[in-house]
Amino acid sequence: MRLIDKLIIHCSYTPPSQDIGVETIRRWHTAPRFNDATGTYMFKGAKYSSTEALPAEARMLGNGNGWTDIGYHFVITRGARVEVGRSVVIPGAHTKGHNKHSIGICMVGGMDPDTRHPATNFTHLQQTALQALCKRLVLDYPITSIKGHKHYAPDRECPCFDVQLDHLLAFSGMGDGCER
Ligand SMILES: [Zn+2]
């Protein structure tokens, strides 16, 4: 089992009306990715030389990231359902340079439907579900930090809210500044 000592929170950057979950995000992350430079596709971690070479089911998926699986370990839907994504025993694909020892959690939402800019529009139930999930994971793994993606990638507005919320800390039993 890999060492897991970080929780990293993300958002799906979708408008509130779009109630997606693991199934949809998995499709986005595993759908073929076209490489302009080489003219090839990546699909589920394998390379294909042309559209025709792709498996039939891949051609219907549209463009995606070409990954082997969804990048996140957990997704919290608008209805606060905690869905399991990638198995926690396998490193995720969510935070460049920090996947090896972390668990990636995605909150569905985060985009203003009118401006299409980042917006903190998560439901109260989603916040509560995030707290409960963090609390559980802190008990299960030697977690030393809970931070948002933007802490590691300051140019990104992900997850568009400050993860170091007092109540999140209180729930997870961790001290100031999310570090211990
Ligand atoms: Zn993110």
Overview features:
disordered C terminus; alpha/beta; 23% helix; 180 residues; binds zinc ion; Lysozyme-like; three-stranded antiparallel sheet
Question: What do these coordinates show?
Answer:
- With 180 residues, this protein is an alpha/beta fold.
- The protein has one domain: Peptidoglycan recognition protein-like (Lysozyme-like, 3-Layer(aba) Sandwich).
- Helices cover 23% and strands 18% of the residues.
- It has helices at 22-30, 56-59, 124-140, 149-152, 166-172, and strands spanning 6-11, 33-35, 40-43, 46-48, 74-76, 82-84, 102-107, 145-148.
- Strands 6-5-7-1-8 form a five-stranded mixed beta sheet. It has a three-stranded antiparallel beta sheet with strand order 2-3-4, with no helix packed on it.
- Strand 2 (33-35) and strand 3 form a beta hairpin.
- Helix 3 runs parallel beside helix 5.
- The model is unreliable at 175-180 (pLDDT under 50).
- It binds zinc ion.
- The site of zinc ion (ZN) has 3 residues, from loops.
- Zinc ion binds next to loops.
**Which hetero ligands occur in this complex?**
zinc ion
Indicate the low-confidence ranges by residue numbers.
175-180
The neighbouring-strand order within the major sheet is 6-5-7-1-8
Strand content: 15-25%
For the record, the count of structural domains works out to 1
Helix segment tally: 5
CATH level-four homologous superfamily name: Peptidoglycan recognition protein-like
Order of helices and strands: EHEEEHEEEHEHH
Give the biggest sheet: 5 strands, mixed
CATH topology: Lysozyme-like
